[in-house]
Amino acid sequence: MPDSFVYLASQSPRRAQLLDQIGVAHQLLLPDADEDAESLEAVLPGEAPRDYVQRVTLLKLQAALQRWQRRGLPPAPVLCADTTVALGSTILGKPADAQEAIEMLTQLSGQQHEVLTAVAVGVPGAGGDPVGTAVLHEELSVSQVTFDRLEAERIAAYVATGEPFGKAGAYGVQGHAATLIAHIDGSFSGIMGLPLFETARLLRGFGWRI
Ligand SMILES: Cc1cn([C@H]2C[C@H](O)[C@@H](COP(=O)(O)OP(=O)(O)OP(=O)(O)O)O2)c(=O)[nH]c1=O
User: Fold this and answer.
1) Low-confidence residues of the chain: pLDDT under 70
2) What pLDDT sits at residue 1?
3) What pLDDT, on a 0 to 100 scale, did the predictor assign at position 37?
4) Can you tell me which atom of ligand 1 is nearest the CA of 169?
5) Environment class of residue 156 by beta-carbon count within 10 Å: exposed (0-12), middle (13-18) or buried (19+)?
6) Dihedral, CA atoms, 93, 156, 147, 187, nearest 10 degrees?
7) Does any ligand 1 atom lie closer than 6 A to the CB of residue 120?
8) Which of 1, 58, 71, 83 could form a disulfide with 117 if both were Cys (CB 3.0 to 4.6 A apart)?
9) Quick one: CA torsion of 162, 182, 93, 176, rounded to 10 degrees?
10) Whether the CB of 82 sits within 6 Å of ligand 1
11) What is the Cα–Cα distance from 31 to 27, expressed in whole angstroms?
12) 52 lines ligand 1 (CB under 6 A)
């Protein structure tokens, strides 16, 4: 197994692509069919977006470490992330359908919002309970994104591309949404789902030369 190898506990193809970009070899560690990954993502009443995204990321990591143990896999760092779009204190998740995507994009039109991505790495101990003994580290990337003013026709055309689905806030900075975004202050890779500067810093903390 190469030195720079991680288990990537994410169904997001963007995260795998971003790890490839920095040469981090990875193996996917995806949920078992009976795992309830959705319920991890419930927002607590009154929870601030920054607290939410960091809490959910650690829950994802704990679930992934348990998965690693159940499967009896060889030790290597386990990495996961969560991306949340926040308009003020309102959290925008993934749109359930076209109508919801239109509503989210209408809210984002002409406004600045934040994209928060937390990334967490856990290194399971050899044997024993990995959740109890793993060393866990987490970083948070916060970016400001300003959308152009979008008329209904432009929103409808964007939704028709299908790009909003499966993405927090109903857009993908790496795709057609590039034509909707007037300004970014922050981390492009963080907005896309995995902040590479923070990810590399976390891995360096585990002794990697990256
Ligand atoms: C804002 C934005 C989000 N996204 C994506 C990244 C994430 O895949 C998704 C946010 O959902 P997440 O819940 O962070 O991730 P996921 O459900 O896709 O994958 P997993 O939980 O298994 O790791 O939105 C983009 O691709 N581009 C963007 O510009």
Assistant:
1) 1-4, 126-133
2) 41
3) 77
4) 1
5) middle
6) 50
7) no
8) 83
9) 20
10) yes
11) 13
12) no
For residue 7, what is the enclosing H or E element?
A: strand 5-8
pLDDT of 127 reads 53
Domains, in order of start, for the chain: 5-205 (3.90.950.10)
Residue 132, exposed/middle/buried by CB under 10 A (0-12, 13-18, 19+)?
Answer: exposed
C-alpha dihedral sign at 107, 110, 111, 117? positive
Atom of ligand 1 nearest to the CA of 41: 13
Which helix (H) or strand (E) element contains residue 201? Answer: helix 196-205
Q: Closest Cα partner for 58 from 120, 16, 15, 1?
A: 120
Nearest atom of ligand 1 to the alpha carbon of 31: 22
Task: For residues 68 and 207, give the distance between their C-alpha atoms in angstroms, rounded to a whole number.
Answer: 21
User: Catalytic residue among 3, 32, 51, 82, which?
Assistant: 82
- Amino acid found at 153: E
Residue from 186, 3, 19 nearest 119 by CA: 19
Structure-token match 């470490």, residue found: 65
Q: Is the CB of 143 under 6 A from ligand 1?
A: no
pLDDT at 162: 98
- What is the value of pTM for the model shown? 0.95
Condensed to tens digits (0 to 9), the pLDDT of residues 88-106 reads 999 999 999 999 999 999 9
Note the pLDDT of residue 128. 53
Cβ–ligand 1 distance for 189 under 6 Å, the answer no
